[in-house]
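User: Hello! I'm new to structural biology and keep hearing that structure can be predicted from sequence alone. Could you demonstrate with TRAP transporter substrate-binding protein? Please show me the input and the output so I can see what each looks like.

Assistant: Of course. The first part below is the input, the amino acid sequence of TRAP transporter substrate-binding protein. The second part is the output, the predicted structure written as tokens.
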Amino acid sequence: MRIFRRTAVIVTSLLLTLGLTACGNAATNSNTKVLKLALEIAPNALTTEMAQKAADQIKEETNGSVTVEIYPSGQLGSQRDFIESMMLGTIEIGYVSASSVENFEPEFVLYDIPFTVFGPEHAEVLWDSEISQQVQQKFLEEQGIRTLGMIDCGPRNIYTTVEVRSAADFSKLTMRTADVAGLINLFNALDANPTVTAFNEIYTAMQTGVVNGFEIGLESVLSNNLQEVVDYCVETCHTYTIDCFLMSERAYQRLTPEEQEIVTRAFEEASTEQRKAFNENLAGYKERLASAGVETIQFSDEEMSKVIEMAQPAIEKSISGIFNTAIVEEIRAMG
């Protein structure tokens, strides 16, 4: 069933590509280049708003020769679908988490090793580091997808309907995770029961009890009204959410050099603005979560040490055969 669903998504993307091109030529007989931008997140999410700003800027600065059409809320599938479609050239731009890229370029685990990145400045230093640029260049050369900008979605915490006040309590959790090996390994190591579920199915899965916990960034909780189906926020800060805009190299090379510069700059500027706005809004996000009746649980230093110790096998497994174990301390030292 999963294979059929993903095949259907790719077919839909192809039809959209053909349909948009045909309609554009019939209606205007112009050479307008249409770039489809796929997101899983809601239309009212901060990053979706920034994507729209980039789209408006691109249309204006290219005098309409390039337009960006935005498809939020998983209309074009999951993040994995976006990446596969960008490789095929049927989706031009996608917004994904760095962790989702690991399925296609394992070295993207660099951005997603548990308990290594501890704040926004730390995340930016990592993104701009030499090793990071090497990883992104390898992804471009081997998979034909380039990075356009880093998005900051803050620390990832756990949201549940059951109390988790100690490391031992993780065994109570049936955790929704994305289809990302690192996350699955982490929650297995913590004695939880990880269950892969599509992002846009989290609300229903929590409502019906299919899962009783999930982990994402706070802004995504609020923009998708997930505070309505949880009682607790467990502040684990197990990873720091580094997301990114990606672009199909096939689509990029169809642009003129001037159009390439405009598209690249528009998404770089939108990403910078998103990071600034997100961190300015973070205190307000926390207030909204509390106002919704969600209790925030903070572990004692002793319990947090136990959690990190339990996670150590998952940390080692996530980088095994990809990076030397010294990379963990190297990243921590960047902060």
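User: So the tokens describe the shape?

Assistant: Right, they're a compact way of writing down the 3D structure. Reading them back into a model, for example: Residues 257-291 form the longest helix (35 residues).
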